[in-house]
Amino acid sequence: TLLDRYSRDVVLSRAWPERLKWLRAAGVGAVIASDVPPGLAGLVPVYVEGRFGPPATLFRLAEPLPGIRRLSRVRGAASVDAAVAIVDEGDFDPATDGVVAGRPPERTDAAEPDPSASARVLAEGPDALVVETDGSRPGLLLLDRSFTPGVRATANGQEATVHAVQINLVGVGVPPGPSRVEIRLAP
Fold it and tell me: How many whole angstroms from its chain centre is CA 84?
């Protein structure tokens, strides 16, 4: 999607230390690259392929985040540039923080993260997911799937608002307490 291209361009325009923050925010667990500075903290080399063309290395992220997780501190952004600026801030923690296009879900702009926030995938298919989530406050369920306007979701059987989060990923507003969230990715 266009949002995927924006996100890719943002990631590639960053130096590797900043790029890692963006990759973690998207739930990425591994990358293939040939331009990583030697000894960069946060990336662990797994395999090097150099038989055909320039050498490329498969790296795993040292501290990957789950691709599906509940965010408890969410901010809104009026533009892609504003969203990029928020993620680039030093206090933005991809483990607990998110940025959405427009207004964030109500009461997700807390100063401190929700330590009880959790998410667990119950079922996953090519165009649908079922996730169990819990938290003491409202939150935003982040999915490492590309946002499109056709994504639909329910939380506890009620229609839930779907957001573009971290520029190009799917976010679903969830209420406090336990929720069963069903997401349909295909139009």
Answer: 13
Q: How far apart are CA 68 and CA 27, in angstroms?
A: 7
Coil vs helix vs strand at 103: coil
Please report, as a single letter, which amino acid is at residue 109.
D
CB 58 within 8 A of CB 44: no
Query: Measured in whole angstroms, how far is the alpha carbon of residue 69 from the centre of its chain?
Result: 8
- List, edge to edge, every strand of the sheet that includes 139-146: 68-71, 139-146, 169-174, 162-165, 97-101, 73-77
How do residues 5-44 score in pLDDT, each as one tens digit?
999 999 999 999 999 999 999 999 999 999 999 889 999 9
- Given a contact cutoff of 8 angstroms between Cβ atoms, the answer to whether 66 and 141 are in contact is no
d(CA 18, CA 14): 6
Report helix, strand and coil shares of the chain as percent, to nearest 5.
Answer: 15, 40, 45
Instruction: Name the band, by pLDDT with cuts 50, 70 and 90, for residue 123.
Output: very high
pTM of the predicted structure, to 2 decimals: 0.92
Beta strands (DSSP E) in the chain are: 30-33, 43-49, 56-61, 68-71, 73-77, 97-101, 118-124, 128-134, 139-146, 152-155, 158-160, 162-165, 169-174, 179-184
Q: Tell me the two tokens of residue 90.
A: 């030093």
